[in-house]
Every structure is written in structure tokens, then in C-alpha cells.
């Protein structure tokens, strides 16, 4: 049987939530990944040292083994340098959301006034704290990410020593930005390597494929695939797996978020095999992230087998992407 081994797979953008949801879904990521960058958009968002530490403890308590490292983030505000110094050892990055742009982002940034942000972003540069950005404007939904490119340029040129991660990129415009500035990097989800807008609203409306940023055009998908499949050294896998209870998705006001964590590695194997690039998957799911963030996860080996795997229709109360569909790859063993 054909197998493929991945070492220390990392999910560089993950929503783990809190409470019962955390307890239900964190073990699924901990099973197949070595670690994950955990998003801070709880209600209220994570903004203090105490909250980061306590949330990390709740995550550790929710996972059944020690092979999973939660890399913690803070929700961006204009923090003082003294505060950042006090928290630097506890976090891997700070996540910036434009106010109101997506789930639980109401307390985000409402204007990109560089002078107002300068003290924080300079302190982050000095302390080597990366800035992760949800890059969307409040423009027309299909143009939001492309419109945000001028803000990425402004941030990248104003703070040349700040590592800026363009999170969950969905457009050719973002792919084209990658090589324009040394300090810009990106994460890409697995669903954005598979979906265009057609998979969300092209036929019947598919609530479980709906997320922010929304999947775009075929040419955008091609651009994302090209950098992911070559494992461009500035891109990393980040699932943006974002669980919502079934009744919040199958609802007249469907919440944004695709739940992919338990099937992400299997799907990535399928995509990379389809394009004959399985050799590059290790860099995309781990090595690039280790280099970009300077992290060194504990040893973990995930062996995938080429055999049919039918995705469950539900995990606890969360419907996964591609529910009940069959994949060609399954996780066989973890060491
Ligand atoms: O679709 C999304 N869901 N996009 C985000 O940026 C946030 C996420 C969530 O937290 O549900
Ligand atoms: Zn996210």
C-alpha cells in the first residue's frame, strides 16, 4: 500500500474556541498535528497576559497527549512596549483584525492610521513578534482582499523589520505581493486550494464551504496552488479551521468558517499527489513554518496511507468540510 510520512505537521492558523467546543475539537488537531497557531478571537478576545496563559492551560487540558504545542497569539490592540515585553515569551504572534470584518472581530482596528500604530508595531519589530493579519477591507466582498494589498504595502514598507503574515490568502493579488517585500509571508488553507466561489454559491448554497475571506475565482485558485505546490518558502499551511455548531451554519444567517482540521492532512496528500508534488508537502506543512517562525516542534511522525477514508457527517456538533465524502488518503499511524 502506498504511504506518505509527514514529520511534525503544523497548522499555522487555527480556531480552537473555548469551553465544550474546545474540549470537543482540540483533540482532533492534537491527533494529527504537532502544534498550531491558536487564534485569539474569543468572546471577549485574548488581550492580556493572564488570558493568554489561562487559555493555553485550557487548551493543554483539553488535549489527550503532550505532542501538541499551542502557539498562542494576542488580539491586536495598540499595546505598549512594556506590556509587549511582559508577554513576549508567552506568544508567537499578534493577530490583527479589521473591526467587524469577520467572526468575533468587533474589537479590531477601525482605521489603519500608521502613526497611531507605530509605537506598537515598532516595539513588535524590536521584540521580533510577527504580525498576523486578516487582510480584508470593507469593500465589495470579492474585492476585499485585493483592496487590502495597499495596506500590506504600507505596513511592509513602514516597518521593514516586522514579520507580516498575510493570513489565509485567497487571491492572485496576494500571491503576487509575496515576493515584493522581504518581510511579507502568507498562510494558505486547504479549502482555498480546492474551492472557488462556485463551490460556495454556484449551485445550491453550501453553508459549510462559506468562510471569510470567501473563495474567489479560478485564476486565484491557480495562483494559490502554484505557490503551495512548489512550497514557496514564504508560504505555510494554516487551516483556518473554524468550527461553528451545526445550527449556526445551517441557519438563515450562516456563520463564516470551514471546519477542516480533522481532514486537512488527508486532503493535502490528495491534492499534492494529484499534481505529483507529494515531495513538497513536508515543506508546506511544516519546514517553511519552522523556518519563518523559528520554531522547533517535538518529534512526531504522521503516516498516511492511500486507502479510502469516508469523512464523518459530524464531529460532536460540527459538520466538517466534505462531510460523508470519500477521500483517497487516511491517517494510518502516529508516532
Ligand atoms: O471564516 C472565518 N471564520 N474567517 C475568519 O476570519 C474567522 C473565522 C471564525 O472565527 O469563525
Ligand atoms: Zn481565522
Describe this structure in words.
The structure is a single chain. The protein is an alpha/beta fold and 335 residues long. The chain has one domain (3-334): TIM Barrel (Alpha-Beta Barrel), CATH 3.20.20.140. 34% of the residues lie in helices and 16% in strands. An 8-stranded parallel sheet has the order 2-3-4-5-6-7-8-9. Helix 1 crosses helix 2. It is globular. The mean pLDDT is 97.
Q: How do you describe this structure in short?
A:
The protein is an alpha/beta fold and 335 residues long. It contains eleven helices and 13 strands.
Question: What's the overall average pLDDT, rounded?
Answer: 97
Task: Summarize the helix and strand pattern as letters.
Answer: EEHEHEHEHEHEHEHHEHHHEEEE
Helix tally? 11
| Major sheet description | 8 strands, parallel
CATH architecture: Alpha-Beta Barrel
The CATH topology name reads TIM Barrel
| Parts with pLDDT < 50 across at least 5 consecutive residues | none
**Strand arrangement across the biggest beta sheet:** 2-3-4-5-6-7-8-9
How far the N terminus sits from the C terminus, by CA atoms, comes to: 19 Å
Structural class: alpha/beta
Amino acid at each position: 500500500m502506498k504511504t506518505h510520512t509527514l514529520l511534525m505537521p503544523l497548522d499555522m492558523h487555527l480556531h480552537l474556541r473555548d469551553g465544550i467546543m474546545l474540549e470537543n475539537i482540540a483533540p482532533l488537531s492534537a491527533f494529527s498535528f504537532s502544534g498550531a497557531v491558536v487564534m485569539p478571537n474569543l468572546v471577549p478576545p485574548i488581550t492580556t497576559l493572564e488570558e493568554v496563559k489561562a487559555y493555553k492551560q485550557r487548551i493543554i487540558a483539553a488535549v489527550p497527549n503532550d505532542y501538541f504545542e499551542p502557539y498562542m497569539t494576542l488580539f491586536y490592540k495598540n499595546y505598549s512596549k512594556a506590556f509587549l515585553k511582559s508577554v513576549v515569551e508567552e506568544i508567537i504572534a499578534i493577530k490583527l483584525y479589521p473591526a467587524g470584518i469577520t467572526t468575533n472581530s468587533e474589537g479590531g482596528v477601525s482605521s489603519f492610521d500608521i502613526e497611531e500604530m507605530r509605537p506598537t508595531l515598532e516595539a513588535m519589530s524590536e521584540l521580533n513578534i510577527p504580525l498576523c493579519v486578516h487582510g480584508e477591507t470593507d469593500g465589495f466582498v470579492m474585492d476585499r482582499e485585493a483592496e487590502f494589498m495597499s495596506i500590506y504595502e504600507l505596513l511592509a514598507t513602514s516597518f521593514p523589520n516586522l514579520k507580516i503574515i498575510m493570513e489565509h490568502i485567497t487571491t492572485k493579488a496576494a500571491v503576487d505581493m509575496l515576493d515584493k517585500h522581504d518581510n511579507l509571508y502568507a498562510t494558505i488553507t486547504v479549502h482555498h486550494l480546492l474551492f472557488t466561489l462556485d463551490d460556495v454559491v454556484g449551485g445550491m448554497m453550501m453553508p459549510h464551504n462559506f468562510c471569510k475571506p470567501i473563495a474567489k475565482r479560478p485564476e486565484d485558485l491557480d495562483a494559490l496552488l502554484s505557490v503551495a505546490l512548489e512550497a514557496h518558502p514564504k508560504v505555510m499551511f494554516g487551516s483556518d479551521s473554524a468550527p461553528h455548531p451545526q445550527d449556526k451554519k445551517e441557519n438563515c444567517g450562516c456563520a463564516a468558517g470551514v471546519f477542516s482540521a480533522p481532514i486537512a492532512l488527508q486532503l493535502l496528500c490528495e491534492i499534492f499527489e494529484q499534481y505529483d508534488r507529494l515531495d513538497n508537502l513536508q515543506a508546506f506543512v511544516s519546514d517553511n513554518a519552522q523556518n519563518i517562525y523559528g520554531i522547533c516542534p517535538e518529534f512526531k511522525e504522521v503516516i498516511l496511507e492511500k486507502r479510502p477514508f469516508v469523512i464523518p457527517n459530524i464531529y460532536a456538533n460540527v459538520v466538517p468540510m466534505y462531510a460523508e465524502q470519500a477521500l483517497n488518503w487516511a491517517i494510518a499511524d502516529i508516532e
